[in-house]
Design a protein that fits this description.
Distance between the termini: 49 Å
Structural class: alpha+beta
Strand content: 15-25%
Order of helices and strands: EEHHEEEHEH
Largest sheet: 6 strands, mixed
CATH architecture: 3-Layer(aba) Sandwich
Strand order of the largest sheet: 1-2-3-4-5-6
Shape: globular
CATH topology: Aminopeptidase
Number of strands: 6
CATH superfamily: Gcn5-related N-acetyltransferase (GNAT)
C-alpha cells in the first residue's frame, strides 16, 4: 500500500475506495478504451464487468489501485498487479493508468508510475511491465521517460465475416 501524498498543487495520491471512487474510475474507461482500441464501445455490460473486476482487485493482495484526487474529485488512477510467469517469479504489471486531460504533461502520470514502482519493488517484483497502444504516442513517451523499454511486439490479425 502506498502512503498518501499531498503536493503544493492540492493533488493527493491515495488508496482506491471501491464505494467512493468506482464511478469516477468507470467514467474514465470511455476515453481509455474507445481511444486506444478502435471499434471498442464502452457500454453498460462493459462497465458492469469492469466494476466487478475492480471489486475483485480490491480484495486481492496481489493487486493495488491508487487514485489521484484534486479538491475531493478523482482525476486519475493506476491499477497495478503482481504476476508470476514462466520466465519471472514476480513481475509488476500496470493494468490501467489514467490522468484527466487538464492535468496531463504536468508530471502526474510520472507520479503514478513512481508509486507503482515503489509498490512493485516492496512486493518483490524484479521488473515492471505494461501494454501501450501504438497510436497513443503521448503515453508511449511517458512510459519511455519513466524507464520502460519496448521489448516485444504484440501483433494482431483481424478476421472479417467474409473469411468464414
Amino acid at each position: 500500500m502506498a502512503a498518501v501524498e499531498q503536493d503544493v498543487s492540492g493533488l493527493r495520491l491515495r488508496q482506491f475506495n471501491w464505494r467512493n471512487d468506482r464511478l469516477a474510475v468507470l467514467s474514465f474507461q470511455y476515453e481509455i478504451y474507445e481511444t486506444n482500441f478502435p471499434g471498442c464501445r464502452v457500454d453498460e455490460e462493459f462497465l458492469e464487468e469492469y466494476s466487478f473486476n475492480l471489486r475483485e482487485a480490491v480484495r486481492n493482495s496481489s493487486e493495488n489501485l491508487l487514485v489521484l484526487e484534486e479538491g475531493g474529485e478523482v482525476v486519475g488512477f493506476i491499477w497495478m498487479s503482481l504476476l508470476s510467469t514462466l520466465v519471472d517469479s514476480c513481475v509488476g504489471y500496470v493494468k490501467n493508468i489514467y490522468v484527466a486531460p487538464h492535468l496531463r504533461s504536468r508530471g502526474y502520470g510520472q507520479r503514478l508510475l513512481e508509486a507503482a514502482d515503489e509498490w512493485f519493488r516492496s512486493n518483490g517484483a524484479t521488473k515492471a511491465t505494461l501494454d501501450a497502444s501504438v497510436g497513443n504516442q503521448r503515453a508511449v513517451s511517458l512510459y519511455q521517460y519513466a524507464g520502460y523499454e519496448i521489448t516485444r511486439y504484440r501483433m494482431e490479425k483481424h478476421y472479417s465475416d467474409a473469411d468464414d
